[in-house]
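Hi there. Long-time user, first ticket. I'm pasting a complex I've been working with (about 248 residues overall). I'd like to know whether the download I got is complete or cut off, because the file seemed smaller than I expected. Thanks.
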Amino acid sequence: MRSTVIMILIISVPPSMVGEFPPPAPWSQGQGTKISEQDLGGPYVIETLDRNRAKKEGEIRDFIWTHWHQKRSGRLVATWYSKEGVPAETAYVLENDEKGVWSMKVTMQWPPERGSDPEHNRSEYRVYSVRRIEPRHDGQSPAVFIPDDKSTQGASYWLVFYSLQHKKTGGL
Amino acid sequence: MYISSEIFYSNGANATNAIFGSYAHELANILDEKDNLPGTTGGQGWGRTYGGPHDPQDKDTGAQVEECMYGSLQYP
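Hi, the file is complete. Here it is re-exported in full:
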């Protein structure tokens, strides 16, 4: 009877699991970069009328800038709710790309939208340069860059992301 | 047009900008939806024709208009 039970247990294991390694930890992302727990940011949730919006966004900017500037691997996840109440989850992963170049992968995910292709509900791009600028109060004024070595709080600057071709691809 | 009552009746320090910004934001989305079908710029949904696909806060056309007006999305 005992040997019958053991037999059943062995058979019930799916063949695909035999010899398989355990799944990677959630913070082990990208190009095999292992990220320590202190280099994990968030998850942040910023609601439409969040009273702590400035503080949370400042912390996110500080995390990204510090890790970028020090070339320290890290990962931060944040969810923003739009004015219409639609959530969008964004993951910032600071790591080397497949060629060993220091970069940041930004992945964004939205719920399905009216009229959009399912593929359009997710976007991913890679950043090769990050600059800090003074906050702007309109969309026309030129950006005033902050020197990389100047120490300043995350709530008092914005981040601009650039592609490998030095084109602006995003920001925060 | 729907604007949340928390914004419309707010009395925060930035309430005026938030109210006008939200009105312009939603008006821009309506005009975009009137003029453009979805999918014209690579599969985007309604009201996102001129939006920022990499904007983590909001990728619709209205967010871009509000950022043009004030530099960023406005909250009370």
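A couple of notes from our side: The helical segments of chain B are 5-8, 15-35, 61-70. Residues 15-35 of chain B form the longest helix (21 residues).
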